[in-house]
Amino acid sequence: MKTNPGRFFEDYRIGDVIRHAVPRTVSGGERALYHALYPARHALYSSDRFAQSCGLPASPLDDLIAFHVVFGKTVPDVSLNAVANLGYAEGRWLKPVWPGDTLRSESEVIGLKENSNGKSGNVYVRTRGLNQHDEVVLDYVRWVMVRKNRLDAPAPDPVVPELKKSLSASDLVIPEGLDFSDYDDALAGEPHRWGDYEIGEKIDHVDGVTIEEAEHMIATRLWQNTAKVHFDATFREDGRRLIYGGHVISMARALSFNGLANAQMIVALNGGAHANPCFAGDTVKAWSEVLDRADTPAPGVGAIRLRLVAVKQGAAPFALKGEDGKYAPEVLLDLDYWALMPK
Amino acid sequence: MKTNPGRFFEDYRIGDVIRHAVPRTVSGGERALYHALYPARHALYSSDRFAQSCGLPASPLDDLIAFHVVFGKTVPDVSLNAVANLGYAEGRWLKPVWPGDTLRSESEVIGLKENSNGKSGNVYVRTRGLNQHDEVVLDYVRWVMVRKNRLDAPAPDPVVPELKKSLSASDLVIPEGLDFSDYDDALAGEPHRWGDYEIGEKIDHVDGVTIEEAEHMIATRLWQNTAKVHFDATFREDGRRLIYGGHVISMARALSFNGLANAQMIVALNGGAHANPCFAGDTVKAWSEVLDRADTPAPGVGAIRLRLVAVKQGAAPFALKGEDGKYAPEVLLDLDYWALMPK
Amino acid sequence: MKTNPGRFFEDYRIGDVIRHAVPRTVSGGERALYHALYPARHALYSSDRFAQSCGLPASPLDDLIAFHVVFGKTVPDVSLNAVANLGYAEGRWLKPVWPGDTLRSESEVIGLKENSNGKSGNVYVRTRGLNQHDEVVLDYVRWVMVRKNRLDAPAPDPVVPELKKSLSASDLVIPEGLDFSDYDDALAGEPHRWGDYEIGEKIDHVDGVTIEEAEHMIATRLWQNTAKVHFDATFREDGRRLIYGGHVISMARALSFNGLANAQMIVALNGGAHANPCFAGDTVKAWSEVLDRADTPAPGVGAIRLRLVAVKQGAAPFALKGEDGKYAPEVLLDLDYWALMPK
To answer: Which GO terms describe its molecular function (chains A, B, C) (predicted)?
Structure first.
């Protein structure tokens, strides 16, 4: 067999570091496509001049481009035989990614726990994205449930890593030079600043986007994530292509511009759940909740912790979970992240 | 409310200058996408070497990329609560836009006239697109009918600007250095030059493109035009997404290559009407009429004034208006512009 | 008539050299789009750093981008009135194409043979793609059946060029500097090297992609191939848009990554047949057969000759031809090419 069968649960060992394939040089082409696929308008990622007025040398690529590129490379090694994507934790953006950078990914196995049915188990990896200078630009923990291939393979000693429920403000890394002292609200598209958002406040982002098959496939391929469930309509019994969860993340984040245009930079991912699958024809909308606020040492820069929820058509206002504690069927995504905002 | 409610008729004042949000740095990525979304083939915008043989330092971005980027930024401030896009006038391209340029837009309110029903009014703005050197690259007048929010707001003194029905040849700005003396017809794809087109001549551009939802949404987002009517299939009662009028402009202009490949640069927009809405599934075709010709002081360069009409399936040959003076239902666009052509 | 009617069979003369229109400067934008439209992951075309570790100055644009750009320009002059694309031969990639290069095409008529029905004939052209230094980056022979317009035009003396059934290893041009001595299997995504593939071995590439209208039109336009049969749903009697054969070539080549990730560079095209038409909604899969292997003088570099077959849903395993020698109806493409692989 010359094709890649993927790894099964019994193929992982604690401490293994997997160097993922296909490094990628990114350019203005990836940025243009990102802005064509999502209604992305955060000014720092759109204009070199705006970014320079915020102390950066130029406009970096969107944070989620970095995330998707790094994540996409892990799919053949981590989730080809996964039955469920269970969670994210301790994600941090450590360096901006610039046009011309070359990214690669590696993942360390940090947890393993076989399920009681003996047919699958949970695999925890810490994934790092590195640039051409071997600097870590992003790292995060992800855990997935992976099938066993040889059911008689012995269960490993269970190791479940202790993960922070949320990163604290002191964990956040502020990009070198970032300075919001001369921030231009008009060009950013939003008069509300860090001090105007209250913990507990919820924002309905109002706009909606109906998703087409061509769009989510173009986006997902752009990140070299080629899991067949996203592309092959003959693969699932129901003949439907499952939309890459990251597509919903980017769509919701872009929609959140309307009300959170000043939540410019994503610096941490505390957690996230893909609550229900998304399919072409769904109309995605988003709402946010302010979970926390914290000051930072950078001039004019505050940190805001946000819950970002993506829902589809038919969702009740601010839909999240039912009385049973389960996500409402119209909820697609529940994401918890830190962003940087002008004070 | 943190989200942008848009401006209503009573929010505009004569003389107001609105600085629109989200400046944008453009690159080869935007150009590649433009050429992927439209059958654009004008050689000056395709090849650095061809552009250099015409006296320019490199191939600029397509004129309509500049238009769409500048226009897209105005939507949240000008047309979010518009009920109709009424017209364009006095549009001029003043500087080429190059990869690496950063564009922003601002609009001055130059006219206001409340409708007799007291529920809406016409707003006239002169929009300017500026580059990172604060040079105006494009300006045009646009007027839209905007809803009132507070119906009891007093009507402003009516001001209707005097607008030229057409710019004259002396108004046109020729890009610095442009020289068609060594123009290569074979590489341009067209043997017919300025002198071969007669006033009154009509050209059927023959080719047609059937439009898909994914394509018009990708294009419209690329210009950061996020008006929900283009994206959210649940927004309109009929469940259909309205295609951004600029998508039809670009499609028709690109189709006009077949017969007008030498109408290289658009330098002025005299007027335009989006005659009927366009929806996914429509097959767009185009025809042109030569309205005028004028000489220019640039070597080898003539100016040609063209009517560009986009129609959909079922249109009669050279369809335009019925005997009642109304546009035929298959007519999508009626545009009046000046272009530069080799003599 | 100002529009291009295309050439008919009687318009070609042996020895004519047609300079095709619309030169094109390519950038990172074209690369990003290519990776968004196809599941392309060959590391040499994805990462500057990986390409540098293989002795190249940077990552070139995918070989098939060069092919499509060069081919697209020939359509208005060669195949606008073609009734069938009959074959390819003697294709060679002679120079890598880099972001920033400007490509143009020219074709020499090397064969003509009228059909016995007097209504059409076969035209053979040798097409060259040239860069801004007037270096040939690609050349290949293609022959098509073209309609006659004036049925009474006399038949030319038949000339059928002698074409090699396959290029031999000594015909292959290895890019200057290419060196696979320090090749990194993990980053390339494939442990199998040149010595691991046996002549006659067949590889099922497993993955499948269901094709959407928007995607094949975006791709085809990107190469400035505007043949209406690909874009206008009202053109064919059955209301279906025919997918550009090159879209299937790129899709199949990208799918072959899974099993042939180390077949990095395409250096020759020995032949190819578009066995059956492809339409939106089809799910494309691919398989390969090793036809030959040869050593090369470049350090660590072997050559492998591959048959690449694209099939659609319903195809039997390794489907090719029936007992009657005809292609099975699910076979879309049968391509014969040479690639370079680490030894």
So the answer is: lyase activity
Same CATH topology for A1-26+61-154 and A188-343? Answer: yes
Per-residue pLDDT tens for B299-313? 999 999 999 999 999
Cα A234 to the center of its chain, rounded Å: 28
Measured CA to CA, the distance from residue B329 to residue A13 in angstroms comes to 67
CATH number, domain C1-26+61-150: 3.10.129.10
Q: How far apart are the two ends of chain A, measured CA to CA in Å?
A: 57
Structure tokens at C26: 């390519």
Question: C147 touching B, CB under 8 A?
Answer: no
Spatial separation of the C-alpha atoms in residues A338 and A140, rounded to whole Å: 14
Best to test chain A binding among C50, C202, C221, C285 (most A CBs inside 10 Å): C50
C153-190 per-residue burial string, b: 16 or more CB within 10 A, e: under 16? eeeeeeeeeebeebbebeebeebeebbbeebbbebbbb
Q: Which CATH architecture has domain C166-173+189-343?
A: Roll (3.10)
Contact C8, C43 (CB under 8 A): no
Q: What is the DSSP code (8-state) at residue B9? A: G
Concatenate the DSSP letters of all residues of B21-43 into one string. S--EE--HHHHHHHHHHS----G
Residues found in chain B: 343
Return the pLDDT at C228.
Answer: 87
Q: What is the DSSP letter of B321?
A: B
**B48-87 pLDDT per residue, tens:** 999 999 999 999 999 999 999 999 999 999 988 898 889 9
CATH fold of A1-26+61-154: Thiol Ester Dehydrase; Chain A (3.10.129)
Q: Which CATH superfamily is domain A188-343 in?
A: Hotdog Thioesterase (3.10.129.10)
Contact C210 A99 (CB under 8 A): no
- Contacting residues of B for C2, CB less than 8 Å apart: 190, 192, 196-197, 203, 259-260
**Crossing angle (nearest 10°) for helices B213-222 and A28-37:** 120
ipTM of the complex: 0.96
CATH fold, domain B1-26+61-151, is Thiol Ester Dehydrase; Chain A (3.10.129)
Query: Where exactly are the structural domains of chain B?
Result: 1-26+61-151, 191-343
B243 near B279, Cβ under 8 Å? yes
Closest CA to B222 of B68, B59, B36: B68
- Of C248, C338, C244, the C-alpha closest to C291 is C338
φ, ψ at C221 (rounded to 5°): -65, -35
Among chain A residues, CA nearest to B17: A186
Structure confidence at residue C133 as a pLDDT band (50, 70, 90):
very high
**A287-324 per-position pLDDT tens digit:** 999 999 999 999 999 999 999 999 999 999 999 999 99
Residue with tokens 């006095």: B90
Q: Is the dihedral of CA B282, B284, B285, B287 positive or negative?
A: positive
Put simply, whether A80 touches C (Cβ < 8 Å) is no
CB distance from A210 to chain C under 8 Å? no
**Rounded distance, CA B88 to CA B108, Å?**
14
The predicted pLDDT at position B1 comes to 84
- Can you give the pLDDT at residue A1? 84
Q: Give the Cα separation of C160 and B290 in Å (integer).
A: 46
Which portions of chain A are predicted below pLDDT 70?
Answer: none
C28-37 vs B28-37: helix crossing angle, rounded to 10: 50
Which H or E element spans position A63? helix A63-78
In terms of CATH, what superfamily is B191-343?
Hotdog Thioesterase (3.10.129.10)
